[in-house]
Amino acid sequence: SDVQEVLSAAYLLSLVRQVARGMEFLASKRIVHRDLAARNILLLSKQQVKIADLGLSRDAYEEGLYRKTTGGRLPVRWMAVESLSHFTYTPMSDVWSFGVLMWEVMTLGAVPYPGVNNHEVLQYLLEGNRLNRPSDCAQDVYDIMASCWNSNPISRPCFGQIIQSMDSIMEESLDYFHFD
Predict the structure, then answer these.
(1) Which positions ≥6 away from 113 have C-beta within 8 Å?
(2) DSSP alpha helix (H) spans, 34-120
(3) Which residue among 35, 53, 136, 167 is the active-site one?
(4) Considering the domain boundaries, does residue 68 fall inside one?
(5) How many separate domains does the chain show?
(6) Quick check: 54 pLDDT over 60?
(7) How far apart are CA 13 and CA 136, in angstroms?
(8) Residue 174: inside a domain, yes or no?
């Protein structure tokens, strides 16, 4: 039914909103996660999530910038363009990853960039391609994701702005169904 679909979408949005709140906190402490993905979110209960695997996280020193210089396996499908091309990590690169995480959640766990090989992801993104709007995902929710994938990090929303956008969507959903 329509009510079930909206409730499940609202539930998923409430989960990713919690992740955004956690990331807002980390950013306020100058911590860049660098591996934000659904696989690193713990569901403690039906209502509570926690951000895990801070193993790649770093203090974003030097004007909020961290540059990775050593090799290693990288989560390329979740990485921002500037992280893939210049190994540069900031809270804004975490915002990009958050957009991919939102896409993962709204697709109920699909792998980002289906049909694109890991070594092709950077070129795919440089050509202006982005993840498509998931079926059953409202346009305003997708708009939040898409804003996270701006090629210019400065043009991406901060986590506080993302939370405000989600709050507006959730309030409109509640108003639509007249829940009091």
Answers:
(1) 77, 121, 124, 131
(2) 61-64, 81-86, 91-106
(3) 35
(4) no
(5) 1
(6) yes
(7) 13
(8) no
Q: Range with the lowest mean pLDDT among 17-31, 50-64, 150-164? A: 50-64
CA distance 149 to 116: 17
Q: Among 59, 66, 62, 70, which Cα is nearest to 80's?
A: 66
Structure tokens at 90: 């900031």
pLDDT digits (tens, 9 = 90+) for 127-155: 999 999 999 899 999 999 999 999 999 99
Distance CA(64)–CA(165), nearest Å, equals 24
Domain that holds residue 83: 9-57+75-169
| Rounded Cα distance, 148 and 165, in Å | 12
Catalytic status, residue 35? yes
User: CATH number for the domain including 95?
Assistant: 1.10.510.10
Return the bridge partners of 49, or none.
Answer: 43
Select from 180, 137, 139, 142 the least CA-distant residue to 6: 137
In this prediction the pTM is: 0.86
